[in-house]
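Assess the record.
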Amino acid sequence: KNKLSDFLFGKMFEGLISQTAQCVFLTRFAMPLNVHPALHLFCAPFAEREAGFSAWLTRVLRLASQVSMSITLYASEETHREMQEFMAATRSSVALKHIPAAALAEGPTADTPLHANDMLMWVLSRKGNVSHSPAFQALPARMVRVFSKNSVVFVYPETRILEGVDDYALAPDGTLLERGITLLKGAKGIFQKNQNR
């Protein structure tokens, strides 16, 4: 069973999502949707900067509203703020609790109880995107094993080229670094001025 899960939620799915830029939801439901009272939502740093942020969030909020499911968000302050603003703009009444997380959490915190009928959802991203981390590759198969009694969902947001994205790169520690493109452009201007003197 574990080998099958590793295959379905590992290399096989990785190959499938690499062939599409559309938003993909990978699900393993352990029970009917309407019996889930709470959703634990895990977002990687900079998830709010992905092109498909509002698209997947719209679907998640719609689901939570339809089945009366509260959301506990594990994410950075920036992602939480963007989500709050989106919920206010769309007049969403879903109950939202935020637990600050500097990195992508692999499960609920020790002081947050997890019940068998809670749903867990991780928002990941494809390689090359601003919120991507190499750790995402093995996470789905591992989480399916760890939370074998819970319904789990993995979201890969829509990908498209955004203006300004090339100005950023991921550092080895997973933080976002702004490339010196703007600085270099300024330096070029200085050199040109010196040559004209």
